[in-house]
Amino acid sequence: MEKIPDRGPALIVYYHGAIPIDYYYFLANVIIQKGRTCHSVADHFLFKIPGFKLLLEVFSVIHGPQEECVRALRNGHLLGISPGGVREALFSDETYLLFWGKRNGFAQVAIDSQVPIIPMFTQNLREGFRSLGTLRLFHWLYERFRLPVAPVYGGFPVKFRTFLGDPIPYDPNISAAELAERVQHAVQSLIDKHQQIPGSILRALLERFYTKHKD
Rounded CA gap, 77 and 54, in Å? Predict the structure, then answer.
């Protein structure tokens, strides 16, 4: 948590699990340890769930227009975003593939706001909850209708460990595409360093009782 500034803005970029429960714990830790709130970017479909919009507003969740993200950062807030979003949540698996494509809007937000980017990854996240989104039917439904209906199972009491990488400082001489690639490499480096692939639910459960670091 020492990599999160005590004051001033920063953009936190994280790997999206089937259920981003690690990010919820991260938000709680920021409040408890730093005395700060962290704004978050969520997919549009969450705002269409009846009665959910007010809850999202209470927790400072926005649906992600670049202008609104820049405004939050320029106002001195922390902001969390997952470039992989719903696609990464549904279609990634125990191999922890990143589904960022050519998304670089988050990088442009960081450039326009002149803020650092802090990469984040949680070990064993896919072993806590898994998605059936890799099945052809659910993949087709999402790509055709943007319906995130793939079943999620789990809730296994595995050992989570969240790692924050070194902040990537603002650089006026770098393009959004180059910065997005640099951030993706930073998140991938955290995965390579801290996650045994493929992930194993049994191994992640056993790590509740002993620590086995990746070779």
Answer: 20
